[in-house]
Amino acid sequence: MTVTIRDVARQAGVSITTVSRAFNGYQDVSEETKKKILQVAESLNYRPSRVARSLVLQQTQSVGLMISDFNVNPGGHHFLFDVIAGVHDRLAYLGYDITLVSTTTARQRLISYIDFCTERRLEGVIVMGMRLDDPYMQEVAEAKLPSVGIDLPILSRYCGYVMTDNVNGARQGVRYLISQGHRSIGFVNGHAQAAVSVDRLRGYQTAMQEAGLEVKEDWIIHSNFLVDGGETATRQLLQNHPEMTAIFYASDLMAIGGMRCIQRMGKKVPGDIAVLGYDNIDLGEWVTPMLSTVAQKRYEMGVAAADMLMGMLLRQEEPGGRLLPPSLVIRESS
Amino acid sequence: MTVTIRDVARQAGVSITTVSRAFNGYQDVSEETKKKILQVAESLNYRPSRVARSLVLQQTQSVGLMISDFNVNPGGHHFLFDVIAGVHDRLAYLGYDITLVSTTTARQRLISYIDFCTERRLEGVIVMGMRLDDPYMQEVAEAKLPSVGIDLPILSRYCGYVMTDNVNGARQGVRYLISQGHRSIGFVNGHAQAAVSVDRLRGYQTAMQEAGLEVKEDWIIHSNFLVDGGETATRQLLQNHPEMTAIFYASDLMAIGGMRCIQRMGKKVPGDIAVLGYDNIDLGEWVTPMLSTVAQKRYEMGVAAADMLMGMLLRQEEPGGRLLPPSLVIRESS
DNA sequence: CACTATACCCAAAACGTTTTGGTTTGGCAA
DNA sequence: TTGCCAAACCAAAACGTTTTGGGTATAGTG
Predict the structure, then answer these.
(1) From CA A23, how far away is CA A16, in angstroms rounded?
(2) Which of A68, B201, B298, B317 could form a disulfide with B82 if both were Cys (CB 3.0 to 4.6 A apart)?
(3) What CA–CA distance (Å, rounded) separates B64 from B55?
(4) Is B54 within 8 Å of chain A by CB?
(5) pLDDT tens-digit profile of B59-90?
């Protein structure tokens, strides 16, 4: 059926050792036989089997890409897609394969994360989209398998992470709003089970305190990162606190929902209420007014995560926590 | 290092044959020894190696997911992410693994699609995001490897496809505009190298002709599926044809760009110009006015593609062309 | 001529499974 | 006793590679 190294060897009149060595660029095979072998291989359409290779080499050159709750992650694509692209490009460039892993049921029975990975002999894993209260969290953190989390600050012997410097991102954002003269600044945060929410909250608090402004608990609302959540949170904020002149959102999606709500209430953005988002998704440029936001480098996060994992795998580097700098992009909404 | 079936066998005092058979649910191993084996395996943390298994079984239980131009596909996430989720969920459910494949350079040298897949012994491939003029197209079509394209109508002995019924989608959409009294209806299509563009154009033409309306060539513009493309195309259309009262777009992104343009020109949607998009991306609900659109079932497309591929693999079914029904969702923009 | 160095090549073992074609054991009927 | 059967187990081959530890010429050197 499939053509093997043995077929090539027979056809070329050499041993399989020689074929193998010819293919792997060893020096102890003459130019002549090498040419012959390559030519025979070509004519037979021979492709070396990675699985046989993996078996004997005891390494698969492949890592898992774990995306939590793939199917029930509305709006997740705005963030995750670019990260995946970054991870993919970097790993593919280094010759590593990517296998998709999910936390959801496979074959109807729940298979443990670590079982899945060791059965496939994955050499490492990149984890994304996971909540802090996800039951798999523990497993990932404790596994003796090199892994790096994206927006998931777990650090251990085998486990590093990459995320945007959310404390500073939020801090810079709020600081900008303050610099524009705002004093009553609301904050619509994401849900508390996202690591980023914790940091962004701290950034907000820090910026307010640094400016000598009081941090009022009921200026802060936890929502869901999505447009509708931003809308309802905004309504609540504005009804209870008419003095508010600016709102900072922990995601662009919520900010877009917020702008919509504000405009529906007959107020102007940024005239009456300034709006600042977080993420810099493509659509921020296309809403009216154009959304100001704290930008995350999503593709670069993927690349950084891949690099960290490769560092562990290839050069036994220690995992760490890598923070990528955010940047402020001011458009029209603030 | 890693614990193998041999370790389990030794520790349990049986042969590796018996361990294997115990694990695979054969009947000729007594309850007692089976219990013993399972217990030993548990205590040793034994996990059978899929790679050894693949080698002897001559099947990997894994398929490729090929995403064309992963990194240079702005806006692609709106469509591709959900499809990927569908493909993933279905295949994971059936116990198949997914390996990411891209058309881009791996290890700096261009590796052929078919080489990539056979080296890894992938059993099939699902291809998405590919243009008709992609150099890989030919290769996919001619490969003796079961594959199904998404929005890529190539049909051969080994190659099927899944797409939305774009002819009817466009036809229904335009028909709706006509039913609302519009007679001068522009069409902003995607680029001609996308299979869907061909079909949507035909749908537009059909609907116009069925209503006895003339199809004017310069009412039709080919653009790029993206917001900015929609914006410029709209400006062009409206400047040259002030009589136009409705525009149909081949993507929601372009429709959103179009609405922005129309509003910038001081006209009202849908009062002056009615707008109808295509895709039903999440943001259509959150622009003002809310976007009317032809909805595609993205997740279901992924599931259908996975199902077709599995049908070929598991039950030797013939590949075919599966068309999923679109549906009209009318909101405020038309 | 004997010895050594070099260039080229190869047999066999190993990787961790599955499966084939057995063997062994004990029980039971004739 | 013998023969037969079923239940429980196993040795060995196979899957397609890589690598180790050689071997055999040929050419060069003293």
Answers:
(1) 11
(2) B298
(3) 18
(4) yes
(5) 999 999 999 877 777 888 999 999 999 999 99
Task: Outline which parts of chain A fall under CATH 1.10.260.40.
Answer: 5-48
Structure token digits, residue A194: 């996202």
Residue B182's closest CA among B209, B205, B206, B213? Answer: B213
Residue B106 makes CB contacts below 8 A (sequence gap 6+) with A92, A93, A95, B116
Structurally, at CATH architecture level, domain B5-48 sits in Orthogonal Bundle (1.10)
Distance of B117 CA from C10 C1′ (whole Å): 31
* Residue of B249, B246, B331, B242 whose CA lies nearest to B288: B331
Q: Where in chain A is the domain with CATH 3.40.50.2300?
A: 62-164+299-325, 166-295
Report H helices in A123-225: 135-142, 166-179, 195-210
Sequential DSSP letters for B279-293:
E--GGGGGSSSPPEE
- In chain B, residues under CATH classification 3.40.50.2300 are 62-164+299-324, 166-295
Topology of the domain covering A62-164+299-325: Rossmann fold (3.40.50)
Residue given tokens 């496979």 in the structure block: A106
Q: pLDDT digits over A207-238, tens only?
A: 999 999 999 999 999 999 999 999 999 999 99
Instruction: Report pLDDT digits (tens) over A236-246.
Output: 999 999 999 99
- Does A61 touch chain B if contact means CB atoms closer than 8 Å? no
Distances (CA, A) of B85 to A70, A274, B26, B104, B305: 6, 36, 35, 22, 12
A-contacting residues in B 102-161 (Cβ below 8 Å): 102, 104-108, 115, 118-121
Per DSSP, the three-state class of A187 is strand
Nearest nt to B49, CA vs C1'?
C16
The verdict on a CB contact (< 8 Å) between B288 and A54 is no
The reply to whether B30 Cβ lies less than 7 angstroms from strand C is no
Tell me how far CA of residue B218 lies from CA of A74, B187, B215, B258, in angstroms.
38, 9, 9, 17
Is there contact between A105 and strand D, defined as CB under 7 Å from any strand atom? no
Q: In B135-181, which residue ranges form alpha helices assigned H by DSSP?
A: 135-142, 166-179
Residue with structure tokens 């996800």?
A: A134
On the 0-12 / 13-18 / 19+ scale of CB atoms within 10 A, A24 is exposed
Chain C bases closer than 7 angstroms to a protein Cβ: 7-12, 14-21
Task: Check if B93 contacts A (Cβ < 8 Å).
Answer: yes
Q: Is pLDDT above 90 for B107? A: no
Q: Looking at domain A166-295, does it have CATH number 3.40.220.10?
A: no
- B35-58 pLDDT, tens digit per residue, is 999 999 999 999 999 999 999 999
Average pLDDT, chain A: 94
- As a whole number of angstroms, the distance between CA B208 and CA B71 comes to 38
**Using a CB-CB distance cutoff of 8 angstroms, which residues of chain B are in contact with residue A44?**
none
The CATH superfamily assigned to B62-164+299-324 is Response regulator (3.40.50.2300)
DSSP string, B203-252: HHHHHHHHTT----GGGEEE--SSHHHHHHHHHHHHHH-TT--EEEESSH
